[in-house]
Write a structure and sequence with these properties.
This protein is an alpha/beta fold and 241 residues long. Helices cover 40% and strands 24% of the residues. The protein has two domains: 132 residues, 3-Layer(aba) Sandwich (Rossmann fold); 96 residues, Arc Repressor Mutant, subunit A (Orthogonal Bundle). Strands 4-3-5-6-7 form a five-stranded parallel sheet, sandwiched between helices. Strands 8-9-10-11 form a four-stranded antiparallel sheet, covered by helices on one side. Helix 2 packs parallel to helix 3. 32% of the residues are buried.
Length: 241
Amino acid sequence: MREYYFYGESVNMYSILICDDEKDIISALEIYLKSDGYHVLKAYNGMEAVEIMKNEQVHLVLMDIMMPEMDGIEAMVKIRELSNVPVILLTAKGEDTDKVLGLTVGADDYVTKPFNPVELQARVKSQLRRYMQLGSGQEVKEKLRSGGIEMDDRSKEVFLDGELVNLTRTEYDILKFLMEHKGEVFSPDEIYEAVWHDSAYGVENTVAVHIRHLREKIEYNPAEPRYLKVVWGRGYKLEEI
């Protein structure tokens, strides 16, 4: 990772992969991202994106869903086999089902087209900050427990009754936040701001999708959860057990 200096401030040159079949969108995103000091890699379909991930150092991916040859969802699955870098989906307004599917298979966030450049730049900075701080050496509790759930924050592993549970990075961060505050109720906005380190605007669906998928992994019966509870009209909590 290269380092440059702008106005006396050290700026890390993170590499961002943009994948979209519309060249105008890639060109616009490239301008915005380069203005923030990022190095930009470009792909025009999912197959190209996966090949770049195999051969280049990438710190974040901006991925369109609807593309020829290999769509964003299929590419997302293959990227998750290679890396846990943040992935932000670029979605059209009517693609709600695909947004949910993308989050389910490992995307971290989404931005709806036509996107607000300021919002997109903020989302990128937020995801990079989370990704680069993970395992940064800050003092943390080595293990968190609640009933049969055990989290080892050194190895970033979660066990349910002794069995390893495979969580995405975002699911892990949500669970860690709730385990650190067992019994406390948090609204979707509060969870988003704590986990994504960004302002929360219309994020209820994003948080709900991650919570639902997390339940499917840590609950024996997600319809009757033992650990991750909804407090209607208020938010979510991890039950003290």
